[in-house]
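Consider this one:
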Amino acid sequence: MNVTDENTGEGRPSAAGEPDPRFAKALRELGLDDVIGRVRRFPEAVRTTAEAAAAIGCEPSQICTSLFFAADGVPVLVLLDGAAHVDMERVRRELGADRLTRAGARLVRESTGYGPGAVPPFGHLTTTRVLVDRSVLGHEAVWASAGVPFTVFPMDPESLVAHARGTLVDVREPAA
């Protein structure tokens, strides 16, 4: 059963631990039924890396951040560890794009079926190019959105990259 979030108008799971129903369907189709049982649901939205890390009890770098861009108008998802900042010029060069912009909420929803701040690494409405910064590989497990702002799931980074059909790249800002 779903209820409607009063702030966003989006449907959200009413039972503890359930991911977004569309994401649960994607997990089942990928043979990842066991991941559904590991989803954590929080009483309130966790929209930032810091909020998610605090709620889980992990380091911010263990959060897999999903950032959505438009490269010459074409949607692209960039995944990186939550302690990193994306270098948009590196992303632009990696894609061979003339122009790279942050995607608006409409493009995010049309491409993925999820709202900004809740995009899981896979299970989208359309096939979207996915770049994964190598920083994600630095942990035994990372936590990613399960389709709504208050659900996350753990997965080993290699499996996450594989299921997202991601390309490993170096697109984080260099350390100062």
Notes: The chain has a mean pLDDT of 87. The first helix runs from residue 21 to 29. Strands lie at 2-4, 11-13, 40-41, 64-71, 74-81, 100-102, 129-133, 142-145, 151-155, 167-169. The two ends are 47 Å apart (CA to CA).
